[in-house]
């Protein structure tokens, strides 16, 4: 029974955002959100690189390397630290957010411990709880 509950919780977090279409090729598409989550306006999709869904917050990586965050901010998981630039990838957890910078370092914000040293050489990041 516990396994099914965990699977449902994971699927619930994963399905907060759904990308449709060929956004990366500039052919348009859409992002669908439901419940308390904001839907990204169609005219803002041209600079979309990636999305990430946390428990009650979401992240959007823009083509200029900046991150847009929205949703629950009870642990500062939507407060992208300055400078909000040079991000390559994003991930969202329950009450935290992560981003990989162009220098290969990981930036963490919200309810999460600092990234341990050495914080170099990363190309991707993932998060769960």
Question: What are the defining features of this structure?
Answer:
about 130 residues, mainly beta, Methylamine Dehydrogenase, Chain H, three-stranded antiparallel sheet, 1 helix, about 10% helix, globular
CATH topology: Methylamine Dehydrogenase, Chain H
| CATH superfamily heading | Regulator of chromosome condensation 1/beta-lactamase-inhibitor protein II
Number-wise, the strands total 8
Q: How would you sum up the major sheet? A: 3 strands, antiparallel
String of helices and strands:
HEEEEEEEE
Q: What is the residue-mean pLDDT, rounded to a whole number? A: 77
Strand residues, percent: 25-35%
Instruction: Please give the CATH class.
Output: Mainly Beta
Question: If strands are numbered along the chain, what order do they take across the biggest sheet?
Answer: 3-4-5
In DSSP terms (H or I, runs of 4 or more residues), the helix count works out at 1
Q: Classify the helix fraction into a percent range.
A: 10-25%
- Helix/sheet category: mainly beta
- The first-to-last residue Cα distance is 19 Å
Low-confidence stretches: 1-26
| Overall tally of domains | 1
Radius of gyration: 15 Å
Overall shape:
globular
């Amino acid at each position: 029974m516990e396994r099914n509950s965990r699977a449902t919780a994971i699927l619930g977090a994963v399905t907060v955002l759904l990308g449709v279409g060929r956004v990366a090729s500039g052919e348009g598409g859409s992002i669908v959100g439901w419940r308390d989550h904001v839907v990204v306006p169609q005219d803002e999709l041209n600079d979309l690189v990636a999305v990430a869904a946390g428990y009650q917050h979401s992240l959007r990586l823009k083509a200029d390397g900046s991150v847009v965050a929205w949703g629950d901010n009870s642990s500062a998981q939507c407060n992208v630290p300055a400078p909000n630039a040079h991000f390559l990838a994003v991930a969202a957890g329950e009450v935290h957010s992560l981003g990989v910078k162009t220098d290969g370092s990981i930036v963490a914000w919200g309810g999460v411990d600092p990234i341990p040293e050495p914080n170099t050489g990363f190309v991707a990041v993932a998060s769960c709880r």
